[in-house]
Amino acid sequence: MAAKVAKYLEMFKVTLLSNTAYVYDVLFRQLFLVVVMYVFIQLWKTTYSWEGAVEISGFTIRQMIWYLAMSESMAMGMPRIGATIDEEVKSGSLAYRLNKPYSYPLFHYAGYMAEATLRFVLSLAIAGTVTWIAVGPPAFTPVSFLAGIVGVFIGFSIDYAAQFGLGLLAFWTEDTWAFRFLYQRLVMIFGGMMLPLDVFPEVLRKIASAMPTSLIIYGPVKTFVSFSISGWVSMLVRQGIWLAACSLIVSVVYRMGVKRVNVQGG
Description:
- By secondary structure, this protein is mainly alpha-helical.
- It has one domain.
- It is built from twelve helices and two strands.
- It has helices at residues 2-20, 23-30, 32-51, 61-77, 81-91, 93-97, 104-135, 142-168, 177-190, 202-210, 218-225, 229-263, and strands at residues 55-56, 59-60.
- A two-stranded antiparallel sheet has the order 1-2.
- The radius of gyration is 20 Å and the shape is globular.
C-alpha cells in the first residue's frame, strides 16, 4: 500500500517540478487576474457605497473582495483535465497507458493535483496582493485558513472526478466539448465563482446550495472568510459524500470504457 501511494506521490512531484520549470510562463498567464480583481474591487466598492451598507448578505467589503480573490484563484487553478482525457480516448493513447504499471485515473489525479496546487498558489499570490493593497489584510484567521485549505483540496478532487468522467464520455460521443462547457458554466454560476451564493435570491440560493458544484468553490472559499466549525464540518461531510458518489460513477464509466477498448482490440 505504501509503495503504491509513494508511486503517485512521485508522479505528483514530477508534475509539480515540470510545471515549476515554466513558472514564469504560468505566472504570466495568471496576470489576467490583476484586471479581474481590479474590476471586482471597483464594482463592489461602488455597490457598498451606493447601498450605504457595512454588510451585504453577511459580507463586509473586505470579506467580499477576499472571497472573490480566493474563488478566482481556485477557478484559475483548475486544469482542464476533461479535455485531456477526451483527447487520449479519441487518439487511442489511453489504450497504451492501460499497459503501464499504474492506475490511469490515479495517474491523472496526481498530475491534476500538482498542477492545480501550483496554479492556485500563484493565482492567490497575484489576486491576494491586489486585494491586500485595495482593502487590507486577509479576512481570515490561521484556523479558518487551514480549514479552508482542506476544503479547497477536496473541492479540487470533486472537480477532477467530474471532469474525468465527462472526458470519458468520448468513448460514446464524438465530442465531449458541450458537456464540459455546460459543467464549467454550472461551476461558474452555481459554484460561487462569480458571486457568493449568499447574495442569490432565496429560491435560487437553496437550489444552488443543494448542488455539488457549491462544494467545489463556494463552500471552501466561504470557510476562509466566514468560518464556523459547524458549517465547516457540515461542508466536509457533504464533500465526502459527493466525492464518493462521483468517484463511484466515474469508476463504473471507466470500467465500461475500458471494456470497449479490450473488445475492439485496443
